[in-house]
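A reminder from the course coordinator: this example appears on the midterm review sheet, so study it carefully.

Given structure:
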């Protein structure tokens, strides 16, 4: 048996394609909960050749209609960093700190955008993804200042609330 989780990545990963081709498994299974485009693509044909035909496909529109997915909205807000950003890869941590985590203007724009979304659609659910706990806590406090009730989870057993309060969360409640 050869099983690939997150099989949708297989179509773009040459090394994993070689593994799939080299493995003499009689049974092949590919799993993915990532919504696919409603139309089959060239990558789908490649996956068919590496893992086998798709057993079941549920279009993302159907999942939205059933209430399992929400309509996605993405916002790109160009912001000048204020400081010169170094080009060196080894400076990435400094870039992230200055241009993302501690960038007050950028974080203010994010919190204002969230406040506007909630004001126009009070039942809206907003998911903000951050890489650093410090950034999540900063945005949490800014959203609280706009009257948006929210919590921040870092993937640990601890949740963070505005004002620095924390609470232990049982794994089965997330």
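Designed residues:
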């Amino acid at each position: 048996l050869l099983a690939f989780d997150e099989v949708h990545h297989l179509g773009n990963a040459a090394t994993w394609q070689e593994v799939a081709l080299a493995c003499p498994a009689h049974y092949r299974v590919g799993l993915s909960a990532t919504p696919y485009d409603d139309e089959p693509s060239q990558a789908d044909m490649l996956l068919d050749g590496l893992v086998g035909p798709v057993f079941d496909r549920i279009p993302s529109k159907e999942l939205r209609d059933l209430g399992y997915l929400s309509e996605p909205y993405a916002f790109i807000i160009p912001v000048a960093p204020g400081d010169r950003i170094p080009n060196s890869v080894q400076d990435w941590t400094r870039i992230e700190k200055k241009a993302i985590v501690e960038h007050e203007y950028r974080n203010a724009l994010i919190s204002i955008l969230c406040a506007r979304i909630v004001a126009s659609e009070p039942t809206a659910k907003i998911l903000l993804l951050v890489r650093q706990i410090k950034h999540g806590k900063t945005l949490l406090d800014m959203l609280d200042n706009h009257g948006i009730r929210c919590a921040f989870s870092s993937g640990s057993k601890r949740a963070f609330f505005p004002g620095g309060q924390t609470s232990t969360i049982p794994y089965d409640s997330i």
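The longest strand covers residues 2-5. The CA atoms of residues 73 and 126 lie 10 Å apart.
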